[in-house]
Write a structure and sequence with these properties.
CATH architecture of one domain: 3-Layer(aba) Sandwich
Helix content: 40-55%
Distance between the termini: 34 Å
Structural class: alpha/beta
CATH superfamily of one domain: HUPs
Radius of gyration: 28 Å
Number of helices: 20
Number of strands: 14
CATH class of one domain: Alpha Beta
Bound molecules: arginine
Strand order of the largest sheet: 5-4-9-10
Length: 564
């Protein structure tokens, strides 16, 4: 932010603050007519013992940095206008110099952030309910890496619980040596559904389920062999979806991984006097914090979801020494995370403060026409992705019948549309997913941004000869070019804010805003004309837009086809 620093250097001594502190107070006015930067003076009132209006007035009258061409005090704010050509030159040079690292800042200094995301359940379909966790987690994974952290992506598999005893019981009763791989998760689901239906009438089935679960707990070879086959088959199926999404994980250590790692945690809780008995169960009383107790051990000695999550947190702390550990999990699990985070804090571990539940809202389907993708009662994510690809293909047939690699482009557009669709809103909002909306080439969507990116590629190819001219930045002194510049200039702050708040939607919005501004510029301003120096400046602006659109999409986990 060189302009802010230049401006702030002059202001700092006037208000008795460090220049950095002044920089962090500065804002970009919502209406560019008000100026390029604004400094609210309310924070100075107390120490300077003057009212904000008078402070703003006195700042506006003082000598300013060289880049400032206009300054005005308005209602307790100082608005600064900077030299337009210098602004254009500075922004474009920064993008050119930093290339695909533009916007990156080493905030992390190589520290580690663990990101627990997607975290699917064994023997259950990878359904649309896991889309947000997967997309948000992947975007954060990319973003933290970009900002100097080392991301560790963890798929905390749901691979433990009495339901697996029932599944094995059902397999024994009705599986008749079915080929588990062949039957896949769908077959497992059928067994499971049948088990529940039959157990309604015949309670002895539940005993059988418990027996099988006991055998898993006891590491009985036959039970384990079956269970591992169910698990491997599920993982193989989800891998296919992760491949489509371009996601890999650093660890698949799930719930069962912690079977032998809970004892020390329980022991520590006991030693620290945090366990109390409640109806035979061992719990941590959280009454003073306005929460129900955190269940650690059931009366039969069985451990719980929270017990495993605590063991996992200790394991991650020891293994990765994280600076932060994020849990990208639906808001329905709010209480669960608050309870065990509090428990770790009560155990006296200060790193409890580094655990964060990155919650998100629900995804439902808006289009009625999607019912055909339903198998049973769930909407499989793979079906949604494939269906989006198919629709993207149809749109491309119409809009760009002659592009090369149409299948490849359709894949990137279709899958990108779905991912972008859940990243475009603040996490906590519930989303009604609609194919038509996410695939619209005119909306605030991946295809719109991808199309704009492809447009800049075509232009840059056509304009190769002016790229070496010395640009005449006065050619960018118009509102259309400036809207593009502002959007590009804002990108680094956007990334920082997105990381601080764990909100990828901020990136998605910046990228859409940039695409919109660029398209307006493209239609309103002739980019290539006889004036080579002016053309070079406009092409330079297009090149910078190209870079930022590409970086933005990539960080969000959305592919950017070169041509569309
Ligand atoms: N498998 C769980 C579910 O689908 C999510 C697990 C989230 N991660 C965690 N460490 N609890 O609801």
């Amino acid at each position: 932010m060189p302009f802010r620093s230049m401006i702030a250097d002059k202001i700092a001594p006037l208000v008795g603050m460090e220049a950095n502190a002044v920089v962090s107070l500065m804002e970009i006015p919502p209406d560019p007519a008000m100026g390029d930067y604004a400094l609210p003076c309310f924070a100075f009132a107390k120490t300077m013992r003057k009212n904000p209006m008078m402070i703003a007035q006195s700042i506006a009258e003082a000598p300013q940095a060289d880049c400032v061409t206009g300054v005005e005090a308005v209602k307790g704010y100082v608005n600064f206008t900077v030299d337009k050509q210098l602004y254009a030159k500075t922004v474009l040079n920064a993008v050119q110099a930093q290339g695909d690292k533009y916007g990156a800042e080493d905030v992390g200094h190589g520290r580690t952030v663990c990101i627990d995301y997607s975290s699917i359940n064994i023997a259950k379909p990878f359904h649309i309910g896991h889309l947000s966790s997967t997309a948000i987690g992947h975007a954060l994974y990319n973003l933290y890496n970009f900002m100097g952290y080392r991301s560790v992506g963890i798929n905390h598999l749901g691979d433990w619980g009495t339901q697996f005893g029932k599944l094995l019981a059902a397999y024994e009763l009705w599986g008749n040596g079915m080929d588990i791989e062949q039957a896949g998760v769908e077959g497992m689901l059928k067994l499971y559904v049948k088990f529940h239906a039959e157990a309604e009438a015949d309670d002895s089935l539940n005993d059988l389920g418990r027996q099988w679960f006991r055998r898993i707990e006891d590491n009985d070879p036959e039970a384990m062999d079956l269970f591992v086959r169910f698990k491997d088959t599920t993982i193989k199926e989800v891998m296919h979806v992760y491949d489509m999404l371009g996601i890999t994980f650093d660890s698949y250590a799930g719930e069962s991984f912690y079977n032998d790692k809970m004892e020390p945690v329980i022991e520590e809780l006991r030693e620290k006097g945090l366990l109390t008995e409640s109806n035979g169960a061992q719990v941590v009383d959280l009454e003073p914090y306005g929460m129900p107790p955190c269940l650690v051990l059931k009366s039969d000695g069985a451990t719980l979801y929270a017990t495993r999550d605590m063991a996992a947190a200790f394991y991650r702390k020891h293994t990765y020494d994280f600076a932060k550990c994020l849990y990208v999990v639906a808001y329905q699990q709010n209480l669960h995370f608050r309870q065990w985070f509090k428990t770790v804090e009560l155990m006296g571990h200060d790193w409890a403060a580094d655990l964060e539940h990155v919650a998100f809202g629900m995804v439902s389907l808006a289009d009625g026409g999607t019912l055909s993708t339903r198998k049973g009662n769930v909407v499989r994510l793979e079906d949604v992705l494939l269906s989006a690809v198919e629709r993207a293909r149809m749109i491309l047939d119409e809009k760009s019948p002659n592009i090369e690699n149409k299948d490849e482009v359709a894949r990137k557009v279709g899958i990108g549309a779905v991912v972008f669709g859940v990243l475009y809103n603040a996490r906590i909002k519930d989303i009604a997913f609609s194919y038509d909306r996410v695939l619209s080439f005119e909306g605030e969507t991946a295809p719109y941004v991808q199309y704009t990116y492809a447009r800049t590629n075509s232009l840059l190819q056509k304009a190769a000869d002016v790229m070496n001219e010395t640009p005449d930045f006065s050619a960018l002194e118009n509102e259309f070019a400036f809207a593009v510049l502002r959007s590009i200039a804002r990108f680094p702050e956007t990334l920082k804010a997105a990381m601080e708040k764990n909100e990828p939607y901020l990136i998605a919005r910046n990228v859409v805003e940039l695409a919109q501004a660029y398209n307006r510029f493209y239609y309103e301003v002739r980019i290539l004309d006889d004036d080579k120096a002016a053309s070079a400046a406009r092409v330079g602006l297009s090149a910078a837009a190209n870079t930022v659109l590409h970086t933005g999409l990539t960080l969000l986990g959305v592919a950017a086809p070169e041509r569309m």
